Amino acid sequence: MAFFILLCVIPLLYLLFSLWKWASAGDDQACYILDYECFKPSDDRIISTEFSGDIIKRNKNLGLNEYKFLLKAIVSSGIGEQTYGPRNVLLGREDIPTLPDAISEMEEFFHDSIEKLLARSGVSPQDIDILVVNVSMLSLAPSLCSRIINHYKMREDIKAFNLTGMGCSASLISIDVVRNIFKSRKNVRALVITSESLSPNWYSGNDRSMILANCLFRSGGCAILLTNNNSLSKKAMFKLKCLVRTHHGARDESYGCCIQRDDEQGRLGFYLGKDLPKAATRSFVDNLREIAPKILPVRELLRFTLVRAAQSFNFTRSKKGDSGAGGVGAKATIDFRTGVDHFCIHTGGKAVIEGIGSNLGLDEHDLEPARMTLHRFGNTSASSLWYVLAYMEAKRRLKKGDRILMISFGAGFKCNSCVWQVVRDLGGTNVWKDCIDDYPKKNTANPYLEKYGWINNEDPATFVIPQ
């Protein structure tokens, strides 16, 4: 009898142990954001309309047509007068950047944002188990990771990853690196550092496709503290629900539409080609196709499937000449707002924000965080998502249980997206604290046209570069 009971109990215990192990593994795979800190450079790095004009006038390679192109680009960019630039550009040395310029730009951000983040969260540098740094256009030896480890005297067994060349979508790639490490290590903390190096990458030539980058990119950065320790979940701000990465680097037109290269005169710059909108759209659609089933309710997916099937049926009948067909009608679309409460969109430019809004059927309320972030901080590359998120928090939009869809694009060409769930009601002070009451702006027009609009009336035969 005892032997029979033992035979029954052992499989039951094994089953209970397997269930416990499976549940524990699920906890270890959790990914929480404990806190984050966006960088706000000092006021002496602000690029106003007047100073922007001074920078352009310093470039003796420009002619009247280039001036007109820049005027049109800046006026329609959606960028305001309080964005920040690198110090060497503000000092008039954009043509002759040095390695110390690039290093000091990064260290100014590191020392400010990391120190504030760790101090506020009560985490010591020695508590960090994983460090991931992404700065696409600066590669040093020792790496930026090593500089941070040395400055903060982090542990010898820290796992460090230094990512370059990943473009504006790099912060979600860094999060993905952390998420995958979390699957094999328990109760660890990770620090993700995301920024871009503008000091050595300011373009001083006259190629329009490369000048455009100067109009859009601005200085910024963000430090993010993450953990998979389930006991810290109540202290967390966000929990990662899913993350999807789409890479179209195998397509030549996608690979070459957004690339660092020399112009015809040998001047290094960042090329933004005419195929960029098409490449972005393709990667965006493919990315949405994969993430939609992960985040949307079954009823919305079923509704979309039925509507699309009905439209396909009507289209087939109309092709056969059936006069009773009612026509194809409006294109079937998925309503992402059935599974998402907020949309955190990369501030790649006014056209990028409007394009995503149009494709997803978003209204002005949905697009406001991205529009206002572009106006206040510009395109800060991979860190821009976190300024948008900070805007939502500062406006007290983020409530417990809300879901946030992050969408970003990057050179390669790639589209990365993820969904965060808000763990608790949020509304603390952050990088927006000094100006959030001034937003949203009713008028985001750049005053550059008012000051430099006279260029449009100039005669090419008599035009003289302004002094």
Automatic annotation (TrEMBL):
Xref: Pfam families: ACP_syn_III_C, FAE1_CUT1_RppA
Pathway membership: Lipid metabolism; fatty acid biosynthesis
Keyword Nuclease: no
Catalysed reaction, written as an equation: a very-long-chain acyl-CoA + malonyl-CoA + H(+) = a very-long-chain 3-oxoacyl-CoA + CO2 + CoA
GO function terms (MF aspect): fatty acid elongase activity
Enzyme Commission identifier(s): 2.3.1.-
Top EC group: transferase
Residues covered by the FAE domain: 28-306
Family, as annotated: Belongs to the thiolase-like superfamily. Chalcone/stilbene synthases family.
Protein known as: 3-ketoacyl-CoA synthase
